[in-house]
Specification:
The complex is a heterodimer of chains A (134) and B (137).
Chain A (H helix, E strand, L loop, with lengths): L2 H11 L2 H7 L3 E3 L10 E14 L2 E15 L2 H15 L4 E3 L2 E16 L9 E12 L2
Parallel strand pairs in A: 1-2
Antiparallel strand pairs in A: 2-3, 3-6, 4-5, 5-6
Helix pairs in contact in A: 2-3
Chain B lengths: L12 E4 L5 E7 L2 E6 L10 E7 L2 E7 L17 E6 L8 E17 L7 E8 L4 E6 L2
Antiparallel strand pairs in B: 1-6, 2-5, 3-4, 5-8, 6-7, 7-8, 7-9
The chains are: A alpha+beta (134), B mainly beta (137).
């Protein structure tokens, strides 16, 4: 797991408002098929190094938080608590020093049933810009 | 003409003189005045050069928590010595160094949304620039 993935997981998993809704169902990259909902899936869309003349200065990442629910309302509720938990975060999380975490945008969607599933899922995703120490 | 051997800017730095922050850019641009000495009978423009001006050295940095940003000081007549080494390479490679004396005459701190805090320094060179070369470590 990458540094920034560890940090994002630590922030979400450490927020009681988030775990009150999704429990331990916070996973990287993909959700477990047929697992209970709601859940959160997080992914690293970009992870860039900002260079100084003498080497790496810091890193900047774009993180996507995908909130999945049985209904649009549930997905929206999970999104809201996750966004609040991450917005403006700074400090050490999962051993990584986050310099800032800023919400950029959110969007909703619907996922048709996956193989073996009878119902689809409502999605509410949020993109964050995260600056952190190398 | 044979191709030259380029050097990377990687590890360019001040080897003498302290700059507060993590340096991301160094620019030095000395100049001389152009004096037009064209006579009425000349069919082409004629020039001579005037006094050498070391100009200002523009240095861009990321502000560090551990170092305070330096401000210009008024009434300063004691210059600070600086040496900039451009690039790096193997221990046997020689890279250019530019040495000069000067004063920090302008400091600009910038804070922008979703960016690191930066500082730009302008160092006014007083006197000559000594160009040499140094073996890199």
């Amino acid at each position: 797991m990458s540094q920034i993935s560890k940090a994002i997981f630590a922030v979400l998993n450490g927020a009681q408002t988030v775990t009150a809704l999704v429990g331990t169902r916070i996973t990287p990259e993909a959700r477990t098929q047929s697992a209970a909902l709601p859940c959160i899936v997080y992914a690293v869309n970009e992870d860039e190094t900002s260079q100084a003349l003498t080497g790496a200065a810091f890193r900047q990442a774009k993180i996507e938080i995908l909130c999945v629910g049985d209904t649009a309302a549930v997905a929206s509720s999970v999104h809201d608590v996750a966004r609040t938990a991450l917005q403006g975060v700074a400090g050490t999380f999962g051993g990584v020093v986050i310099l800032h975490c800023l919400h950029e945008k959110s969007l909703s969607n619907y996922q048709v049933p996956m193989a073996g599933e009878t119902t689809g899922a409502f999605l509410y995703s949020a993109i964050f810009s995260v600056m952190y120490q190398n | 003409m044979a191709a030259g051997t380029s050097i990377s800017s990687y590890k360019s730095r001040f080897t003498t003189g302290t700059i507060a922050g993590t340096v991301t850019n160094i620019g030095i641009s000395p100049s001389v005045a152009e004096i037009d000495v064209t006579g009425l009978s000349d069919t082409e423009k004629q020039f001579v050069t005037g006094t050498f001006d070391g100009g200002t050295v523009d240095v861009s940095c990321n502000v560090d928590l551990s170092t305070a940003v330096v401000q210009p000081t008024s009434g300063n007549s004691t210059t600070t010595s600086f040496v900039v080494q451009f690039g790096s390479g193997a221990a046997t490679i020689f890279v250019p160094t530019w040495g000069f004396s000067g004063y920090i005459v302008k400091t600009t701190v910038n804070a922008e949304i979703d960016k690191q805090v930066t500082v730009n320094y302008s160092i006014q060179i007083s006197g000559a620039i000594t160009v040499a070369s140094a073996a890199t470590a």
